[in-house]
Amino acid sequence: MSVVRIVLMVGAIGLGVEVSDNARFTALQTSGGTLGTTRSERRHSDLIVSGLIHFRQPLGAYVGLDVLGGPALFTKIRCPEARRGHR
After folding, report:
1. Going by C-beta distance under 8 Å and a sequence separation of 6 or more, which residues neighbour residue 17?
2. Helix (H, G, I), strand (E, B), or coil: what is residue 11?
3. Has residue 17 got a pLDDT over 70?
4. Structural domain tally of the chain?
5. Pairing between strand 13-33 and 36-58?
6. Residue 2 near residue 20 (C-beta atoms within 8 A)
7. Angle made by CA atoms 42, 38, 43, in degrees to the nearest 5
8. Which domain holds residue 26?
9. Average pLDDT score, the chain
C-alpha cells in the first residue's frame, strides 16, 4: 500500500490531497469438467483520491483539537484476465 498526502496549513486551517493505491490482490478460480480444467486469474487494485480539510485548534499548553476529513473518490481497477487451460 502506498499513500501520498500533501497538506498546506495556513494558520488553523489546512487544505490538501491524499492519493492511495490500496489492496492489490489476485483472485484465482479453477473450474473443470469432462474436457479438462480452466484456471482464471484476476488482478484487482483500488485507487482512492481524497480532498482533505484540516482544522487545528489549540486548547491549552499541551492539548489541542485536530479534525481531518473530506470527500473521497474510490475506483476499482481490474487488470486483464489471464486464462490457462489444463487437461
Report:
1. 5, 6, 49, 50, 51, 52
2. coil
3. yes
4. 1
5. antiparallel
6. yes
7. 5
8. 2-86
9. 77
